[in-house]
Specification:
Blueprint: H1 7-12, E1 22-23, E2 27-31, E3 39-45, H2 61-76, E4 84-87, E5 103-107
The structure holds guanosine-5'-monophosphate and zinc ion.
């Protein structure tokens, strides 16, 4: 898929207005439009990478940064102590619908 057609590239490039809960040079964090839990955030690299299967040998640092940022966001959203779930869906059979790498953070259940 060309990045022109990628909805997360459009969000990263601010072509689709979306509130960022966090942003740095390499990633953004925003709320999932169709939340599966009271808290549902998406952590998205600014670079277009299709998914976990497509990360090149020199690119794995972004995965560490996504997970570390998720841990910080869980604290910011006050779900660090109650607990939360982090997951990547990989390809269609794994539930991936947006083919731009992203880490889900869900939590906030009673
Ligand atoms: P996937 O199934 O690919 O792992 O997750 C894609 C997620 O992106 C879904 O949970 C879906 O609700 C969310 N999503 C799709 N389009 C948009 C959008 O335009 N804005 C936001 N905030 N989330 C989106
Ligand atoms: Zn993209």
């Amino acid at each position: 898929m060309a990045t022109d057609d990628c909805i997360f590239c459009k969000i990263v490039n601010r072509e689709i207005p979306t509130e960022f809960l966090y942003e740095n040079d390499r990633l953004v964090v925003f709320k999932d439009i169709n939340p599966l839990a009271p808290i549902h955030l998406l952590l998205v690299p600014k670079e277009h990478i299709r998914g976990i299967n497509d990360i090149a040998d020199g690119e794995w640092d972004i995965v560490t940064e996504l997970v570390m940022t998720a841990k910080d966001m869980a604290a910011k959203m006050s779900v660090d102590k109650s607990g939360y779930r982090l997951f990547f869906n990989v390809e269609k059979g794994g539930g991936q619908e947006v083919f731009h790498l992203h880490l889900h953070l869900i939590g906030g259940w009673e």
